[in-house]
Amino acid sequence: MKMKELEFHQITIEDKAWMDALYAEDNRNACEYTFANNFIWRGVFEAEVARIEGCGVIRYLYGEDRAYSYPIGAGDKKAVIEKLLFLCHKENRTLTMCPLSERDKKQLEEWFPGKFLVWGDRDDYDYIYSREKLATLAGKKLHGKRNHIARFKDGDDWSYEPMTAENVEECRKMTYTWIGMRSEKWNKEMEQEIAVLHEAFDHREELGLVGGVLRKKGEIVAFTMGEPLNSDTFVVHFEKAYPEMQGAYPMINQQFVIHACQEYTYINREEDTGDPGLRKAKLSYYPEILLKKYVAEESNIVFADPEKNREDIQTIWQSSFGDEEEYIDFFIQNRMTEETMLLYYLGDKVVSMASFLPVEYCSGEENIPSRYVYAVATLPEYRGNGYAAKILEFAKKHYREPLILSPAEEGLISYYEKLGFKRAFAESKETADDIRAMELSVNGEAADDYDLSEQITGEEYAKIRDAHFMQEGFVRWAPDAVSYAIEENTYCGGKTLLVCLERELKDKSVLMYRMEKDCLVIEETTLSGERLMELLPRLLEENGAKCFEIKSHPGMIWMPENEKKEPGTKQGYLNLTLG
């Protein structure tokens, strides 16, 4: 049976009634899900709407392609998505939907397992505040906001009033002055926002927008405008104030909430679009909720679900590395998040996987967010088809961050070189060459003036590690990741020690080791070669070891094109690979 063509049309005022009804059925709290928001931005994003299976769907520009809203309303959402998939495939495109809520994400993954890569876009998260907190600005954290407002009120020459047909043109004129004050920072996005703001002025009453105006000495110096979002939340779409006037922004924010939002529990002040200054400003009000919103992209490479994909992960992992189920579960429970492991689906079967753990790469004075590539594996019967390579290529485009790895064996170095990875990272900073050149007898004199403690936190280890190894190309792990490394080492029968000489208690070092048969294997240490040689006889004796080995992991790195600096082949430090 031929599927009926989907009929999208440009959003018009006539669509308001039926779209409002569908929004009410969903009662969403993301800022995009209001009629007014989509109407005023329709020109910028070429937004169109269609009614499908009792739902509404908005189609709009998304980068160089098109995306669709998640179906709106109480209709058959699954049937809608099936029709959108059919439409996109007919046009030789993949389906992208956004934004999705947590509920939408779970729904989509249940209906279409292994069909969509679903990821959170931090730049698009909404900041949602308690109305009471914005109205009172109570507490020590908001003391600075109260001070700015007090300075604005100096002279008692201010007033607040609702936005009306009588003063809206004054607000429009104020925007032209505001533009002049921002001329040095002016860009295309700001120009679009002003055009959209004037669209909101033109249709304010038809759209049901509510505004507030702040005057100083009779002149408008700030205004704001928004609308009810759902049953308990009001959304603020616009807020403009003269930047040089102290307290104007917090004052219009507070006064509008006091006068126009009494019926609501929460105020949604939208996203920060990744702008550092805007992010800092929005965080400074301490949101009650940082609303996570997702993007869903049709793909056969998707993020693993720690629960739903546990059996798939264990099967691939065991067939490739031979670890016990308990160890695999230990990794899944402690290191996996919803966006760190990618799976390759062949039809309905998971055949390949790789993890991408957050880490930092030191370049100059910057710590660049990067990903440590771990547990790259494919089912034996599916190897040789390039599935793992496809995951790595996909990860390059998705994360857009340096990828760092340590090949499990020498033979894999050439494999990763073909994928654009380059050799990097020196061996152990101070000790490896010294100790390899020396013979050590287990009968040597054991040092007894070292204080060894297993009471060490990830935060303390990370601090000592950072101070000791920090250099160009250093791979830096966050304290929670280091905590996992300590736990993983303990799980494998090893020990992590805080080491200091009894006569130099302030000079602390770390030492992580484990036993492999009768060999004491040092995973990492900040001890100098001389100090380690003094301590080794004691460690060998206490652990019944006949020999020792300094672990040195070969490292490789892939750098995105936007990272100009190329790492040297012996530059930096990796070693703690957090398996």
Please give a structural write-up.
With about 575 residues, the chain is α+β, with helices and mostly antiparallel strands. The protein has 20 helices and 27 strands. A hairpin with a 2-residue loop joins β17 (about 350-365) and β18. α18 packs across α19 (about 480-490). The longest helix has 15 residues, at about 190-200. The model is unreliable at about 430-445 (pLDDT under 50).
Count of DSSP strands = 27
Q: What count of helical segments does DSSP give?
A: 20
Question: Distance between termini?
Answer: 52 Å
Question: What value does the Rg take, in angstroms?
Answer: 29 Å
Shape: globular
Helix/strand/pairing category = alpha+beta
- Give the proportion of residues in helices: 25-40%
Overall pLDDT confidence: 91
How much of the sequence is in beta strands?
A: 25-35%
Q: Which residues form runs of ≥5 with pLDDT under 50?
A: 429-443
What summary fits the major beta sheet? 8 strands, mixed
